[in-house]
Amino acid sequence: MTKEIWLNLPVKDVQKSKQFFTEIGFSLNPRFGDNDQQASLSIGEKQFVVMLFPESTFTQFTGNEIPDATKATQILISIDAQSKEDVDSLLDKVVTAGGTIYAKPQDQGWMYGAGFADLDGHRWNVLYMDESKIASE
Length: 137
Prior knowledge:
The protein is an alpha/beta fold. Helix content is 23%, strand content 34%. It is built from three helices and eight strands, in the order E-H-E-E-E-H-E-H-E-E-E. The radius of gyration is 16 Å and the shape is globular.
């Protein structure tokens, strides 16, 4: 049975990407290596693992070319927030750390969210869902 899942991302510069993600609130994961060839981060209460690898290493792992994430989207990574204010706060951190907002916050009643791109163009969205309002929508 699977016990954990990791998200592996190709990045142009491991150190710059590691700095970006720690500035927006992700934690360094001491369980895995942290050097110029990889970095490991943890997200959320369940400590979801994100591994950062140089593009050349990632290509060796996958045997495929890496698409330009600033021009094509193959995956959308979603993370939750505890409130609308947490969504807005994270977006502020993203901009300060050098990322970009590709979708401004939208309020759909039961869900409030927005989208951002990291330094390499990978797309993320951050969502606050008020489950008490889902049935009423």
